[in-house]
Design a protein that fits this description.
The protein is of the alpha/beta class. The chain contains four helices and five strands. The radius of gyration is 13 Å and the shape is globular.
């Protein structure tokens, strides 16, 4: 059995269709990492956050803490299933993944 795919999203969900496109191909037990402007997908009350909350429970969700904080989003507002990580965590995710797809 191969290691799961890691999907890295970097564009704002309001200015790009990357999140929607990724969600269409996302399979069970895969991972999603939000970096740069993609962290805006986690804005409380946003349509994108509503979509993220509907993902299967075995899809792992991560956000780069530095990008989240740089854009003024609070760690306290993250859904419980979203894990904030640092740059070292990104390297570990990539190493654990069989394939990395950047959106």
């Amino acid at each position: 059995m191969s290691a799961p795919t890691l999907h890295i999203l970097r564009h704002s969900p309001t200015g790009s269709s990357s999140l929607a496109n990724c969600m269409r191909v996302l399979a069970n037990k895969q991972s999603v990492l939000l970096i740069e402007d993609a962290v805006y997908a986690l804005l409380p009350g946003s349509a994108s956050l509503g979509s993220i909350k509907l993902l299967p429970g075995d899809v792992r969700l991560h956000v780069l803490e530095a990008d989240l904080l740089a854009r003024g989003l609070a760690l306290d507002d993250l859904p419980a299933r979203v894990q904030s990580i640092d740059y070292k965590g990104i390297v570990q995710l990539c190493e654990q993944s069989g394939k990395v797809v950047s959106w």
